[in-house]
Amino acid sequence: MPSPRVSLITAVYNPPADAFEDTIASVLAQSYDDWEWILSDDKSPESWVLPRLRELAARDRRVRIVERPENGGIVAASNSSLAEATGELVALLDHDDVLEPNALAKMVDAYDRFDDLDYAYSDQDLMSDAGELRDAYYKPDWSPERLRHHNYCTHFSVFRRSVVEEAGGFREGFDGSQDHDLVLRVSERARRIVHVPGVLYHWRQVPGSAAADNQAKPYAWDAGVRAVQAHLDRVGIRATATRGVSPGLYRVEREPDLETPVSVIIPTIGTSAIVWGEKRAMVVETVRSVVATSKHRDLEFVIVYDTPTPAPVLEALRAIEGADIKLVEFTEKFSFSAKCNVGAAHARGDVLVFLNDDMEAYSEGVIENLIAPLREPDVGMTGPKLLFEDLRIQHAGLVYGSGTITHAYYRARPEERGNHGELHINRETSALTGACVAMRREVFFDAGGFSERLPVNYNDVDLCLKVRRSLGLRLVWLHDVVLFHFESVSRDNAVHDWEKDFVNNRWGNYKHVREGYSNNVR
């Protein structure tokens, strides 16, 4: 008999009886029927469990059970099921959760689309004890930086079995975060990873489960920290993993980059304004704040100033202690893009940081922490969290798609955490604001710099899409690199329809173009 295409694997230990029956019904109702289901009973003490499993196997030849002689925990039981799997694909299903009827069909379709696909994950929601559905989680496309901070993939996960076996299956010592550890290890060798859009998995909230209470399994949080740290060590990222702001979230602190030559490029016309009740020359205080909070050892500031810039502002810039200032006069009609491109042409740094003149560094080590991820060759650009004067969010990543270009969490309050902690984790994003963005010199020039056909607005979005689409590099938003942005103090904030049309005509409806699938990860 030929092997089935998909092996569903489930570790079983004292599941709630009614919930388990829902799980069974959801598997048997799958529209795609080329599967096997391997359930490993981890020595459940409830007397009904093993007889029910035996009955299920007797009624459907696609169901097989493993009767473990002793209780070994979730990792041991999951490996018992994995060892019996014969399918090309392995799908993970918990013993109290529910699949949509088309779950396997949708996942198999993804594998049929891509011969080199090694891992696919879907969207999910929560199911109450009474069967009510809520809190649908529509996930981003493949986001490795986010995964280091949060196991956002979770459910529904389907792997190529050979890759899971090469990665070593589930590992002892990671109980409670064994899926996160597995996904991290699979991601390191996967040829392609895709997000299959649509809620295919209902994560049951039962008393004592992580779905119902993220405090229920504190050991899982520590196991997750170990999983992330082991991953960082394997892939050569110089960073330390620790607990994040709540269970299931992690913090990754990279070793600051103090040595790579950096040029901070600031376009200005020398505007002064009132900030926090005091008048300031904006560009002067921007530079002073960066110098005061940075320990970087090779840092220059390339100030591209319009001819009308007041002479006292230029003199104040030259007088800033500890600042290597290069002044470049710009005599043409105002164009933010052209001024940035001119600054890049005059810069000597291996990394370029484009910075508005109406900023103030808030966190320590803005420069060295902002550029640290650029050591990783697949990171094309980084950007920080930007705050308004009142501490509300100005920038937490740009969203591009469905004909819209918007700031995520615009004006969110300081105490807000965002969906699944998004305001407190590093993550990939559609685009980054040009108010503060860092990139390697070669990436900037390979992408063609800022388009001078967009002199004022959306030139940053266009550059980001060139880096993502044309160069295939990641854009990473960093939650713990923070600056104030006194937005539009120094310029008109009007956005014109032709600017939106230019970007949409050039790049199209981004989400539609990608159909929810990620690029090849290699």
TrEMBL record:
It comes from the Bacteria. Pfam families: Glycos_transf_2. InterPro entries: Glyco_trans_2-like (IPR001173), Nucleotide-diphossugar_trans (IPR029044). GO terms for molecular function: glycosyltransferase activity. Residues 7-166, 263-444 form the Glycosyltransferase 2-like domain. This is Glycosyltransferase. Transmembrane segments: none annotated. Keywords: Transferase.
